[in-house]
Amino acid sequence: MAPDAVLSHLHRADGSATYTHNGYCIIGAVNGPIEVLRRDERPEEATIEVNVRPAVGVGSPKERHIETLLHNTLRSIISTPSIPRTLVQITLQVHSLPDEDSSTGVSPSLTLLPHLLHTALLALLSASIPLSTTLTAVLIALPSTNTPTACTQLLSPTAIELLRAKPIRSAHVFAFSGEGKMLLNESDGTFSYEEWDEAAEAAEEVCCKEDGAVVLAENMEVDGREGENLDGWLRSVVRTKVEHEQRWKSAR
Amino acid sequence: MPQEAHISVNERTFIQDAIKEQVRLDGRAFDAFRALELTFGDEYGVADVQLGKTRVIARISVHVVTPAPERKFDGVFQIITEFSPMASPAFEVGRPTNAEVVLSRILEKAIRRSNALDTESLCIIAGLKCFALRADVHVIDHDGGLIDASCIAVMAALQHFRRPDVVVEGEKATVLSIRERDPIPLSILHQPLCVTFSYFEEGELFLVDANLAEEQVRSGEVIITMNRHGEVCQIAKYGGATVEPYALFNLTTLALQKVKEMSKFIQTRLDDDAKKRNASGLLSELSAENDRPFDKPVG
C-alpha cells in the first residue's frame, strides 16, 4: 500500500505532516527559517536541527544516531545557502509502531529510517523550506536462504512480513534524490557486494523510476494507478497540496 | 533559541477591554470549554485529546522492574511530560520551560499523589517484581489549556489501557502476551480532572479554558483538580491576582460541573471504543478476571 500523508494540520508549527505506512505513524513538524543561536550560526548557510522523539520514553543514543543520519541526509536536499544565518528546526514524533516491530530481528532504527525521512521531507514541503531536490527512501531486507542465488528481496516489507521471513540476513535502507542520485545507504548484517548491488538497483526502481509500472510490493497494484513508485506517490501528494492551496483560483 | 513571541500591547489591551465588556475573542461564554475531542488508537492506552486547537497525546506503557526496597508492595507509576519544538519553537529539548515544570508538577499532584491509580495492584511478587507504568505526554499542538488537556489525556489513556496478565508460580512470574490471555484493565480508584480558571482585572473576572492569547494576558490562574464525586484533589494558584477565599468555593462548584461533563464525555468515548473492539461479543468470554461484587460496605 502507498503511504498515507496529511499535510499542514498543526497550527503552531510552520509546516507539519502526519505520515502513516505499514503501521508506522509519525508526526513531523518544521519551524523555519527562524532565529538561530549565535554559536550555531553559519555565515553562508542555514543550520539544521533534527529532533527525533520516540513513542515511549525520552531520547536515547539510538535516537541521537538516527538524528545524525537524518541531519546529514537532509542537509544535502535543503537549499541551505539560500537562507543563510537561520535555523530550520525539524521535529519528528513517533506516534505508533507496529506491535511486531521489536521482534523482527532487523535493527529498529533501520525499519524506522525510511518513514522518518519521508515524514521530514513532507513537513519541509509543507513549511515551504527551499529544497534543492526531493528524496525517497526504501527498506530492503534479504532473508537468509540456503541457496544465496535464489534469495528473494523483500521490498519495503511490513513488520509481519519480516517476522515471517525470519531470520533476516541483511537489511538495507537506501535514499535517492529526485534526480536518482543515492543520498543515503545504511546496511546491517552480512551480505556480498553482488547482493548489495542488486538491492541498490531494486531500491532505485522503487524510489525513482519515472515510467514503467514498478510493483512496490506484491499487493501494490490494487490501487490501479500507473507507475506506482515512491516518486509518483510523492508527486501525487504534492499535487494534492498545491491543488488545495490554489483552490481559491479554481473556485467560481 | 527563539523566544516565544510576546503578545503586543495593542492585542493585550484589546483582549482585556473585550473581557471587561463580557466578550471573549472566540465568542465563547466565560465558563465554556472549547470543543473537546477524544480518540483512542488501535493499541491500548493511547489517547489523543483535542481541545480547540490544542492537541495532546498520552501513551501508557508498561514493563517489569524490581520495586523500590522501601515500597515493596507498590508498583511504579511515572508521568513524563517533555515539550518538543513541535508545540512551539520556544520549547527546547532538554531545557524545561516554566510551563513544562508547572504542568508536570500539577499532573504529579493531581493524578499520582491523589492515588488515582492503585499502585499496589501493579505488584507481582512483593519486593521482587512489579509493573512499572509510564505515561508519556506528547504535546503536539499548543494553543493554551495544556494542563486541562493533558489531564484528560492521561486519565483517558489510563482507563483505556490494559496490562498483560501474569501467572505466578512460587518465585517465578510469567507475563502472558495479549494473544495468550486477555489483558486486564488497571484498577483506577477515582478520575481526577483539572479545570483552569484564568483571572483578569486583578481577580475580578475569570475565564474557563483560556486559549494561548488569553493565557498571555491573564494576571493569574487557579487550577482546581476534582473528581466527579466532588472531592477536591488539589488547588494551585499561580500569578499575582488576588483571589478571595470565598471565591474558591464558587470555583469548586463550577469545576465540579465541568468535571462531571468531561467524565461523562470520556466514559461515552470509552464505551464506544469498547463496543468497537468487542464487535463479536466474545471478549467477555476471554476475560480471566473475576467479577467484583459491588456490595455496600458493612457499617
Automatic annotation (TrEMBL), chain A:
Keyword Membrane among record annotations: no
Exoribonuclease phosphorolytic domain residues: 8-130
One BP term from GO: nuclear mRNA surveillance
Pfam families: RNase_PH
Keyword rRNA processing listed: yes
Alphabetic keyword roster: Exosome, Nucleus, rRNA processing
GO CC term (a single one): cytoplasmic exosome (RNase complex)
Primary localisation category: nucleus
Gene3D superfamilies: GHMP Kinase, N-terminal domain
Top-rank taxon, per record: Eukaryota
Subcellular location: Nucleus
Molecular functions per Gene Ontology: RNA binding
Family: Belongs to the RNase PH family.
Protein name from the UniProt record: Exosome complex subunit Rrp46
Species of the source: Paraphaeosphaeria minitans
Automatic annotation (TrEMBL), chain B:
Lineage: superkingdom: Eukaryota
A GO MF term: mRNA 3'-UTR AU-rich region binding
One of the Pfam families matching this protein, by short name: RNase_PH_C
Keyword tags: Cytoplasm, Exosome, Nucleus, RNA-binding, rRNA processing
GO cellular component, one term: cytoplasmic exosome (RNase complex)
Coarse class of the protein's main subcellular location: cytoplasm
InterPro entries, per database record: ExoRNase_PH_dom1, ExoRNase_PH_dom2, ExoRNase_PH_dom2_sf, Exosome_comp_Rrp42_subfam, PNPase/RNase_PH_dom_sf, Ribosomal_Su5_D2-typ_SF, Rrp45
Domain Exoribonuclease phosphorolytic: 33-164, 190-257
UniProt-annotated location(s): Cytoplasm; Nucleus, Nucleolus
GO biological process: exonucleolytic trimming to generate mature 3'-end of 5.8S rRNA from tricistronic rRNA transcript (SSU-rRNA, 5.8S rRNA, LSU-rRNA); nuclear mRNA surveillance; nuclear polyadenylation-dependent rRNA catabolic process; rRNA catabolic process; TRAMP-dependent tRNA surveillance pathway; U1 snRNA 3'-end processing; U4 snRNA 3'-end processing; U5 snRNA 3'-end processing
Family membership: Belongs to the RNase PH family.
Name this polypeptide is given: Exosome complex component RRP45
Organism whose genome encodes this protein: Paraphaeosphaeria minitans
